[in-house]
Amino acid sequence: MMNLLFSVSLQVAFILPNGFEEITWGMGIEELTSRHEVHKAAPGSAYTYADHMEIDPDVYVRRTPDNKKIEYYFYKGRLYKIYIVYDRDKSTEAFYKELINKAHKEYGPAQSHYQENVFGILVLHVMWDDGSSTLDLRSGAGYVYEVLIDKAAEREKANQIRQKRSLEESI
């Protein structure tokens, strides 16, 4: 019994943010626009988004006074992912390590780290996961990204995409 209690407490050692600042998972677009001046992102417009692997995204963008670009990703009208894209001048290896060290102090050791090739660009990932949210610190393409994800909504979206593809392939 004591071992069971100890192992459960180790699994819930930290809780990641459920959003960014006062903007939280599940919030609607109207609530976001009532709190911040945001712009609808679209390919080819002045307001673009970082996650080019995203399928049919509904993204709203704002700039902070310290020149961070905050991207809010919505699925079915509800917030499920946030990209914090740091200014290119700050996006150095030293700054990336600084963010990793800060997260390590706050959440403990990262659960995973890996690198991937995205469209010929090497992207480094260092990730924390508390079961309901993911924090993914990324470095690549000359930028540093802090990506926060609502895991339940991300799974729901991925399942719907798989179901849609399966239906399309069966036709």
How would you describe the overall organization of this protein?
The protein has 171 residues and is an alpha+beta fold. It has one domain (15-170). The protein has helices at 2-11, 29-35, 93-107, 151-170; strands at residues 19-20, 23-24, 39-40, 58-63, 69-75, 78-85, 112-118, 121-129, 133-140, 143-150. It has an eight-stranded antiparallel beta sheet, with helices on both faces. A hairpin with a 2-residue loop joins strand 5 and strand 6. The longest helix has 20 residues, at 151-170. The protein is globular and about 50 Å long.
Number of helices: 4
Globally, the shape reads globular
Q: What is the average per-residue confidence, as pLDDT, rounded to a whole number?
A: 87
Multimeric status of the protein: single chain
SS-derived structural category: alpha+beta
Cα(first) to Cα(last) distance is 53 Å
Structurally, how many domains make up the residues?
1
Strand order of the largest sheet: 3-4-5-6-10-9-8-7
Helix content: 25-40%
Q: How many β-strand runs?
A: 10
Order of helical and strand elements: HEEHEEEEHEEEEH
Low-confidence stretches: 1-10
How would you sum up the major sheet?
8 strands, antiparallel
Strand percentage = 25-35%
Q: Please tell me how large the radius of gyration is.
A: 17 Å
